[in-house]
Structure formats: structure tokens, C-alpha cells
Amino acid sequence: MSELSLHEKYMRLALENARAAQGQTAPNPLVGSVIVNDGRLVGIGAHLKPGEPHAEIHALRMAGEHARGATIYVTLEPCSHYGRTGPCAEAIVQAGLARVVVAAPDPNPLVAGRGIQILRDAGIEVIEGVLREESERLNEVFNRYIVDKRPFVTVKSAVTMDGKIATRTSSSRWITSAEAREDVHRLRHESGAILVGVQTILHDDSQLNTRLPGGRNPLRVVLDSTLRIPENARVITDGEAPTWIFTGSNADPDKRRRLEEAGVRVIDTTGERVNLGEVLDTLGAGEISSLLVEGGGQVIASFVEQGLADKLVLYMAPKLVGGREAPTFIEGLGIADMNDAVGLTGLQVKQLGPDLKFEAYFPKK
Ligand SMILES: NC(=O)c1ccc[n+]([C@@H]2O[C@H](COP(=O)([O-])OP(=O)(O)OC[C@H]3O[C@@H](n4cnc5c(N)ncnc54)[C@H](OP(=O)(O)O)[C@@H]3O)[C@@H](O)[C@H]2O)c1
Fold this sequence. Notes:
Helices cover 30% and strands 23% of the residues. It is α/β, with parallel strands linked by helices and 365 residues long. The two termini are 38 Å apart. The model has no long low-confidence stretch (mean pLDDT 94). The site of NADP nicotinamide-adenine-dinucleotide phosphate (NAP) has 31 residues, from β6, β7, α8, β11 and α12.
């Protein structure tokens, strides 16, 4: 096996360890580590929850004296700051490791590179970038939030094979199969907040909750510039989860008061239509690190046009409904020249029952 594929093999193992703690490390990232000495696996570790040792420390403790002269694989640059266990980079130096293989740098530009510098200054060989993309994907939410203090934005839609999210009469239940819908509920369970435009509430009276055994409900967010939302909408009355409504500058003060009395948080933004940048800043300030934008087409168009979407998750059912009036999942004005089309990267496709699930990334800003 070549040296690079050997590095990839052990980094993959470190990534699997990191992934095993999914959902329990927030607000910290998922990190895994393995230590290999003379072809033998001598240490293995993952960061399991905030306040507990980092992945490298677990692996170093397990390796004990076998760490001396060994290679450590870490999915994220070892830290250089004093937490509960001291800087991991220092611990690696103390333990006498010969080589450190790192997948991704620390995303925070203020600290990135410092951990690696400590290691190099101590004369340790450092190899960077092994399976970097996989590691960055694993922590995509953390990476966005730590750098911008805004949530990672996933745009989700369910479409027919001709790209429709409803028929010409607005009938939209159900486009996809039970398997795909269950997957959507898993996405909701993992998201800090779920967002729709008021038109979706007017059409569907959506509950925006997680219908999975043991599922947690995200914060519900509605964009409603003039407070058109009906006061008996389920997101207002059902008490399943908190609801925040973002408005523009022309919201009716009486309706606002009544909504607030019903327990809803109403938040002003500048401009006639809800200002999306301000929505993301407010959610970030509320420690919401991931946002699921579920539509409809007008709201998705705004996120895409303003370059505020990070990832697309699209469920496609093998159905056709046709019709010029039937809405598609991105409305708005649209692109004029095909050369300006939004190019997505990292496409992954999975079959869920009879449907397809596409995941892809929007261009980085
Ligand atoms: N298949 C699916 O996955 C799916 C998912 C969701 C919805 N749907 C369907 O989609 C349809 C509704 O979609 P839609 O496109 O008509 O409406 P929408 O995107 O749900 O809501 C649009 C409304 O949001 C308000 N808004 C406030 N700020 C905005 C901003 N910055 N950008 C865009 N909109 C903003 C606007 O009303 P104000 O200006 O009055 O605030 C606008 O009319 C329904 O038929 C629903 O069933 C399908």
C-alpha cells in the first residue's frame, strides 16, 4: 500500500470515530484520532462531548508509552489553547510523537495554523490535508457558525421529476414516499431551526415539527413582512415548539401585539421585505447553528439569489405533473444566461424507496 493510501486508511478510521459522536459534541466539532506505531494501531479516540478530553488526548492515554516515535492521525488541527486538558499540540510534543497527519485546519482564522506551528517548532513532521474535504463536511455546521456566527443554511425541497413542488391547484400532499418524508424528519431533528415563507403557512398550515419517535422539534421561523399569518395557524397555537416571525418595516402593530400575547416572538428587520442577512444574524445570536429552509419557491429563490444557501437537499419522486402554473422549487426572476447558472458541487445521490435524494453544495462566498 502506498504511503498516501496508508494515511487515508488511518484517517478514514479517525473520521469514522469522529462521526460516531454525531449529535453529542455541539457546540464543539466532531473530531477523531488514531495512533499507529510501526504498523500497529496503539491508540484510538474521539471527542465525545463538551467538557471532556479532545480526541487526541483519549488516543494518547490509550497508547501510553507506545506513543513515542508513533504517527498520530487527527481529523482537525490539534488545538493550541488552554482548555480543560491543555493544548493538544503540546500534549503531542510531550508524548514524543514523530509525525502528525492532519485532515483539516482549525476553521477559525484567528487560531488556524497555530497548533501546527507548535508541532513543527518542536521538530515533528506534519502532513496536512489528508481527506480534508471529508473532515470539513463532517463539521460543515460548526465551521460556518464558528467563522460567521451565522447558521449553516440547508435548502430542502421535494419535487416531481419535472421540478414541481405542487400542482397548478397547489395540491402538494404527498409528492414523495414515506421513506423520503422520514428522512426529512431526521433533517428537522438535526436542525436548530426550520424556516418557511408565510405563503407556505397560508397554503398548508404546516406544523414544522419532527414526527419521529424521540425526535426533537427545531425552532420554527416564518418570514412574513406584513404579518399576514392567520392567528389560528398551527405554528402559533399548537405549542409544539417556539415560533419566531420575522417582519419588514410595515407590520401591523395591533396584530404584532396579539401574536406576542399568543407566545410568538416577532422580530423586525429593515426594509419592506424581510431582510435575510438580519434573520441569519439574529438566529446566530440565538445560538442557532443550523437552519433548514423548507420553502416555498419564493423564499428559496431569495436565499439562492442572495448567495446565502450553503447546501441543497432535494428529494425527487418519479412523478410528473406538468403545467406552466405549477410552482417549481426556485421561483423569483431566475438566471438570464445559462453561463450564469448556479453551479453546485460535491453531488451525492441516494435512493430512498422509490425516490432519489440529491445532496450538493452551493458555491462558497
Ligand atoms: N414540495 C415542497 O417541498 C414544498 C415545501 C414548502 C412549500 N411548498 C409549497 O409551496 C407553495 C408556497 O410557496 P411560495 O413560493 O408561494 O411561497 P413561500 O416561499 O412559502 O412564501 C413567500 C412569501 O414569503 C414572504 N417573504 C418575506 N420575506 C421574504 C423574502 N426575503 N423573500 C421571499 N419571500 C419573503 C413574502 O410574503 P410577504 O411579502 O407578505 O411577507 C412571500 O410572498 C405552497 O403551495 C406550498 O405547498 C412545497
